[in-house]
Request: fold
Amino acid sequence: MKFTKMEGTGNDYVYVDASRETVRDPSRLAARISDRHFGVGADGLILILPSGKADARMEVYNADGSRAEMCGNGIRCVAKYVYDRGIARKEELRIETDAGVKELRVFTSSGVVTRACVNMGHPQLERQKIPMKGPKGRVVAEPLAVLDRTFRITAVNMGNPHCVTFVKDVEAFELAKYGPAVERHASFPARVNAEFAQVVDRWRLKLRVWERGSGETLACGTGACAVCVAGVLNDLTARRVTAHLPGGDLELEWSEAEDTVAMTGSVHEVFTGDWPTGE
Reply:
């Protein structure tokens, strides 16, 4: 089975053209191929398939084999794959996901895509839309008891669920301790992605992410979008910000007029290979 490893701001996935390759058990394959010691090594597996209403369709599987609704950096790499391989050779693309059809724009150099911008759509802010247990309304700076601490969280759904906490020093924050506890907190029936962000100024943030089903990753596109929204809701940042993540920078803008979040960043193809058939 032929595969391609790609990364967007350090968020790396294994991509398989499922219109050409047979993937019988994608959940099992995701867990095996994502293993960084015994597999290719990745944050998960993304299948690229034909779509009846867009240029292509993507299916996302986390490193533990669980299905994800959406991946912001992953879909930007799908746009590069689709453009570079001639599946849809155009600068404006539409990709179908479990969270709906997303619109993207690609930027090229020497005939290949080097950057991509995705319109992530409208952020969902009502508690039931996250989903999160509790009374109706938005979750903004709400206390959440986690192990031995209480965090002030803001919940945002960007096609998948996010729990954002602002901290004073994100680099010193004990992500490996608190990330898993937030991800599996009883308040989130579908689990949740946990973002911990430090405000540098109104236009810049530092961010670390504990991704649902994958653990700490170098970047998370939907998570960065959620932090952009949370920063505005808490009056900490402007609507247009740059998020500094371990894997690089993402440019984000929550449009007041359209109520949509746009995300722009780099995309790279790392290598291609063959995975043993029958796996």
Remarks:
- The mean pLDDT is 96.
- The first strand starts at residue 2 and ends at 8.
- The helical segments are 26-34, 72-84, 175-183, 221-233.
